[in-house]
Recover the amino acids of this structure.
């Protein structure tokens, strides 16, 4: 393991030189308690810093390093150009409090991106402010709540299928609503009867992921929308899987009233080791006045940003993750309408190809044409004493990231596989070969899987011990390791 | 195919044959015909790389970035010198093209970095533990308010009138569905929280009091004194801080804070029109199991080697679902890396030099502006890196005049803080400012008279 930053420190080492030339001794801090103790920050040279983080970077798997079939996360190529563009001083140096005349480029970019996202989703209004998919979900639920309040109604429930991502019920709770779970049918799709049974005049919204987390399109979506709307409720689409539909389906025309987009999935802004993301929310004309944050409008005197008339408020300190918005716009204009259609075509082609090639190797409980991903089950390996976790760990030995595992919850020992459209046939074939080898090993020599991974910087880590002997902060020098 | 799909026509045919369909469109057979778009997207065809770059560069050129001119804007987003080593490290795809470290064996780079980030933040704030970051300072404050109400099982939270308005709006939006009572505490003539008004509102129904220090007006609060009173009422102290100030001012931990939040943009992240930022949160040991967001812990592998994992995951949405501490799923991993590299590069002495230099510049500016005819300082309290000035003309007029000559003069306060009036301007210094820059600004203000 790499040495930790603090071990590399040498007190007194000359560090980074800040601009000199300011006044001295003029502070107005006479009444304030000043810090006397050492903070305990390290002191390193620039080269020390560079080497430390370069070394850490080599311990990571990344899209740049290899295949990353993490279901639902859409780990596809992040065009290098977009990183360069985000660093342009003309954007990076803009303060959100500048006068509008001096940030017309930023405002135009936001306006243009909103037009593009409207074109992709079919919704007439989009807020760019939410900074993550989960925050987009929360925004949508807050809009639902506000919409009914505005009509003098009080509705408290939100219906969610059991295949949903955990953020869905958590977002509902944050918005002060209660979630009701309905079971999926045997085909993995929403059961119309269960939905009809759960709907009543206390239901504010229904949250659906489409395609769902099994990678299946909700074929009865129009009937679902009718049921929901007949009950007076709103239909929300979790757009985590929109990359299966770009250029082919307008969620707005399916009957959805709101949706969020994950720019870091569908439009390939980098995931950054867990963020920053961006989760814009699109809504129908009727709901546009509730959108949060500032909306950019184009007028005779240029672009201006104003809040919506009945905005639910604001979910970010400024304009959302602007630098992610600009990467997404670069991606969209580079691909264009034709390229975005190829994105969904390529994503669905790759997923179906993998599914077809793995059909005789892994159990696929909801077999049939899939969309951008499919879910296999590792339960057939259980007689060998092998679990899905072991398959995932063994994959790491081949320089491939594992699929999403143990999700969705409705498939036992789940392996959720999303290759994305940017992977080549050669990579997919290699993955197939590796999976076949792993499944063969499970039968012949399960110990290989149980001990895996062996070629990674560390082996399997003691997660139970991490909770029991919680250590989340390096102890001060000299105190040794805490317990 | 376009869209970075790498296949040749031959390969596509091979793949379609393996699947057993004739064409790509047949793969969408489960999408009912009446659900499909009849025509393509209402969008032009794609551009090449050069064309894309030209278009986006054109938009950048339509801006006049404050960072490239004389910038006195602050209020939560700060114009800092960022060491070049930071952008170099952030541009490594091993970091930016990785995801949340779900498979720790191949994510030790991200995990160890987050552990280092947590440690740096805990040390900076003087708190026991920090999480792996939240979206931004404003949402971190909202999460802190929710955490406090849950921990205390009380529903009233006191917010200072001098709180950053953008943060207050996010608190209101996040908590609207939770039936909480948010009460505003006014400021006094020093610009600090009016302690008499605070005492009046404190009672056994108060879950927490938010103390922003330095507050939005740049004024340093007496956090230690406030904390004693707040905790005597059984409420939690949520300190909202600007991280660089902690190199100079007593740490919130040492002053008794229970929860510390802040915006981390000022430690290594470009302004980028306000985002992405970095939500900071650190708490005392007793609250560690209630903290929202990811946390990284140190452990050992099956051979006894040190390693790092995401830990305490039973607090989180993917396990607890509607009972989770928050719906947050991602952190701001790459921005946490930016902050970690920044703090490592400046180090103990660099951050102290930075903070001292900012306070000196702010004090210098206060002295000069106070002496300008027609200008006054409404508050007498200590300041760190920004100050409120009252001008003889409206703040918007000053901003407009400044913009015309390459000076981003400050933020107008009248809209969000009507009590301060339309002539109130929030002025922020930067380590970029030389004495000559500060004098040029003062001279500019001197010309801004009715």
């Amino acid at each position: 393991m790499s040495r930790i930053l603090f071990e590399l420190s040498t007190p007194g080492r000359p560090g980074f030189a800040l601009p000199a030339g300011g006044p001295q001794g003029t502070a107005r801090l006479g009444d304030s308690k000043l810090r006397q103790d050492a903070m305990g920050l390290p002191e390193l040279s620039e080269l020390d810093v560079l080497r430390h983080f370069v070394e850490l970077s080599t311990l990571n798997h990344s899209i740049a390093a290899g295949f990353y079939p993490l279901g639902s996360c859409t780990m596809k190529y992040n065009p290098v150009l977009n990183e360069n563009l985000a660093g342009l001083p003309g954007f990076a140096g803009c303060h959100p409090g500048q006068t509008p005349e001096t940030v017309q480029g930023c405002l135009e970019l936001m306006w243009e991106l909103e037009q593009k996202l409207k074109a992709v989703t079919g919704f007439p209004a989009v807020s760019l402010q939410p900074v993550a998919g989960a925050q987009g979900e929360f925004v949508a639920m807050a809009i639902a709540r506000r919409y009914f309040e505005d009509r003098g109604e009080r509705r408290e429930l939100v219906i969610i299928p059991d295949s949903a991502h955990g953020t869905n019920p958590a977002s509902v709770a944050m918005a002060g609503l209660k979630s009701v779970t309905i079971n999926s049918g045997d085909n993995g799709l929403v059961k119309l009867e269960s939905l009809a049974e759960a709907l009543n005049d206390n239901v504010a919204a229904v949250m659906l992921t489409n395609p769902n987390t099994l990678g299946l399109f909700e074929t009865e979506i129009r009937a679902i929308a009718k049921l929901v709307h007949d009950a007076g409720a709103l239909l929300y689409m979790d757009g985590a899987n929109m990359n299966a539909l770009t250029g082919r389906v307008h969620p707005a025309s399916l009957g959805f009233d709101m949706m969020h987009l994950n720019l870091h999935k569908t439009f390939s802004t980098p995931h950054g080791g867990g963020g920053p993301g961006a989760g814009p929310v699109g809504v129908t004309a009727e709901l546009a006045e509730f959108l949060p944050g500032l909306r950019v409008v184009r007028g005779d005197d240029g672009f201006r940003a104003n809040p919506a008339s009945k905005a639910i408020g604001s979910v970010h300190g400024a304009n959302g993750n602007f630098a992610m918005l600009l990467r997404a716009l670069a991606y969209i204009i580079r691909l264009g309408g034709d390229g975005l259609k190829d994105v969904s075509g390529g994503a669905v082609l790759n997923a179906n190809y993998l599914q077809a090639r793995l059909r005789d190797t892994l159990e696929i409980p909801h077999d049939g044409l899939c969309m951008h991903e499919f879910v296999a089950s590792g339960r057939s390996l259980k007689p060998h004493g092998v679990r899905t976790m072991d398959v995932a760990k063994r994959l790491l030995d081949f320089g491939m990231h594992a699929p999403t595992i143990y999700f969705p919850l409705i498939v036992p020992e789940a392996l959720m596989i999303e290759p994305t459209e940017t992977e080549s046939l050669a990579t997919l074939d290699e993955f197939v070969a590796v999976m076949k080898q792993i499944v063969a090993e499970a039968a012949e020599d399960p110990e290989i899987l149980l001990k895996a991974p062996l070629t990674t910087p560390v082996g399997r880590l003691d997660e139970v011990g991490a909770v029991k002997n919680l250590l989340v902060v390096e102890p001060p020098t000299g105190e040794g390791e805490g317990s | 195919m376009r869209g970075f799909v790498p296949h040749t026509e031959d390969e596509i045919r091979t793949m379609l044959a393996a699947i057993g369909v004739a064409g790509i469109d047949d793969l969408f057979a489960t999408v009912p015909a009446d659900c499909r778009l009849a025509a393509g997207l209402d969008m032009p065809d794609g551009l090449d790389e050069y064309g894309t770059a030209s278009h986006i560069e054109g938009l950048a050129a339509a801006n006049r970035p404050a960072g490239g001119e004389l910038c006195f804007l602050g209020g939560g987003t700060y114009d800092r010198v960022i060491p070049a080593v930071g952008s170099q490290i952030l541009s490594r795809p091993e970091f930016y093209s990785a995801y949340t470290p779900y498979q720790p064996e191949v994510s030790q780079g991200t995990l160890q970095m987050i552990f280092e980030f947590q440690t740096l933040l805990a040390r900076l704030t003087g708190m026991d533990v920090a999480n792996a970051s939240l979206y931004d300072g404003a949402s971190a404050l909202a999460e802190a308010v929710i955490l406090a109400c849950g921990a205390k099982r009380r529903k009233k939270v006191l917010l200072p009138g001098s709180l950053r308005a953008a943060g207050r709006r996010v608190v209101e939006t996040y908590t609207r569905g939770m039936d909480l009572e948010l009460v505003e505490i006014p400021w006094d003539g020093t610009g600090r929280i009016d302690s008499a008004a605070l005492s009046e509102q404190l009672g056994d129904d108060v879950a927490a009091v938010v103390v922003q220090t330095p507050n939005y007006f740049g004024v340093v609060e007496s956090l230690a004194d406030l904390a004693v009173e707040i905790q005597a009422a059984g409420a939690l102290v949520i300190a909202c801080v600007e991280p660089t100030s902690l190199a100079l001012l007593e740490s919130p931990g040492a002053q008794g804070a229970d929860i510390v939040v802040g915006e981390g943009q000022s430690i290594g992240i470009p302004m980028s029109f306000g985002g992405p930022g970095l939500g900071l949160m650190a708490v005392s040991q007793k609250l560690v199991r209630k903290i929202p967001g990811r946390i990284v812990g140190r452990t050992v592998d099956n051979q006894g080697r040190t390693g790092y994992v995401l830990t305490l995951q039973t607090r989180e949405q993917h396990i607890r679902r509607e009972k989770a501490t928050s719906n947050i799923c991602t952190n701001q991993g790459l921005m946490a890396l930016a902050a970690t590299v920044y703090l490592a590069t400046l180090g103990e002495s660099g951050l102290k030099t930075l903070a001292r230099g900012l306070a000196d510049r702010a004090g210098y500016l206060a002295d000069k502006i106070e002496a300008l005819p027609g200008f006054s300082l409404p508050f007498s309290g200590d300041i760190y890196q920004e100050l409120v000035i009252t001008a003889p003309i409206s703040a918007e007029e000053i901003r407009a005049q400044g913009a015309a000559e390459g000076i981003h003069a400050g933020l107008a306060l009248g809209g969000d803080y009507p009590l301060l009036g339309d002539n109130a301007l929030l002025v922020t210094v930067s380590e970029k400012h030389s004495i000559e820059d500060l004098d040029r600004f003062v001279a500019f203000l001197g010309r801004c008279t009715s």
Observations:
- The CA atoms of residues 426 and 432 of chain A lie 10 Å apart.
- The first strand of chain A starts at residue 125 and ends at 127.
